[in-house]
């Protein structure tokens, strides 16, 4: 089986995000001047253009804002797991921030573990983390256990 392509985790603008993921924390950028939170990362604040930001932890909870289902392998290494969903998560704490990711049933579950028919807009989700290599831990999303699942 071909390995999936992995993100670069040592770029200046994203290094802190990947380090936090390895520690099991979901972070977003926070402007040190105005406090604006942003993701994906930028080299400056998208609100006030200040050049310094820091990483702040989020609770890692949100809801599905949009989703799609890949029926063909879009990347090498994914031919054995199609179809699989990709979701866009709107964070509860920062609703202007949306993150793209996989929806899974648990931390070690494959990215096709949630059937497309079980996915709906607004489904509450929480972050989980999958260590896919020694250097790369990917944030993924799973339905919140206490709410929102179909009977
Ligand atoms: Zn700012």
What does this protein structure show overall?
The chain is mostly beta strands. The protein has 2 domains: 13-57; 60-143, Beta Barrel (OB fold (Dihydrolipoamide Acetyltransferase, E2P)). Helix content is 5%, strand content 34%. The chain has one helix spanning 15-22, and strands at 26-31, 37-38, 53-58, 61-70, 84-91, 98-102, 124-131, 137-143. Strand 7 and strand 8 (137-143) form a beta hairpin. The radius of gyration is 16 Å and the shape is globular. The model has no long low-confidence stretch (mean pLDDT 92). Zinc ion binds next to loops.
CATH topology of the largest domain: OB fold (Dihydrolipoamide Acetyltransferase, E2P)
Q: Considering DSSP H and I runs of 4 or more, what fraction of the residues is helical?
A: under 10%
Number of helices: 1
Segments where pLDDT lies below 50 for 5+ residues? none
Number of folding domains?
2
* Nearest-integer average pLDDT: 92
Distance between the termini: 35 Å
Give the ligands present.
zinc ion
Shape: globular
CATH class assignment of the largest domain: Mainly Beta
The proportion of residues in beta strands is 25-35%
> What is the spatial order of strands in the main beta sheet?
6-5-4-7-8
Number of strands: 8
CATH architecture level-2 label of the largest domain: Beta Barrel
The main pleated sheet reads as: 5 strands, antiparallel
Secondary-structure class: mainly beta
Highlighted features:
binds zinc ion; five-stranded antiparallel β-sheet; 151 residues; mainly beta; OB fold (Dihydrolipoamide Acetyltransferase, E2P); 1 helix; three-stranded antiparallel β-sheet
């Amino acid at each position: 089986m071909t390995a999936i392509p992995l993100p670069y985790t040592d770029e200046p603008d994203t290094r802190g995000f990947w380090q936090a993921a390895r520690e099991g924390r979901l972070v977003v950028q926070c402007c040190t001047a105005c406090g604006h939170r942003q993701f994906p990362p930028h080299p400056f604040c998208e609100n006030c253009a200040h050049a310094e930001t820091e990483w702040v932890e989020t609770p890692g909870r949100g809801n599905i804002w949009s989703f799609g289902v890949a029926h063909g392998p879009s990347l090498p290494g994914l031919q054995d797991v199609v179809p699989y969903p990709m979701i866009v998560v709107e964070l509860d704490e920062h609703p202007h921030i949306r993150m793209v990711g996989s929806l899974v049933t648990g931390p070690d579950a494959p990215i096709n573990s949630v059937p497309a028919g079980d996915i709906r807009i607004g489904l509450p989700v929480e972050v989980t983390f999958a260590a896919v290599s020694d250097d790369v831990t990917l944030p993924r999303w799973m339905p919140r256990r206490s709410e929102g699942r179909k009977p």
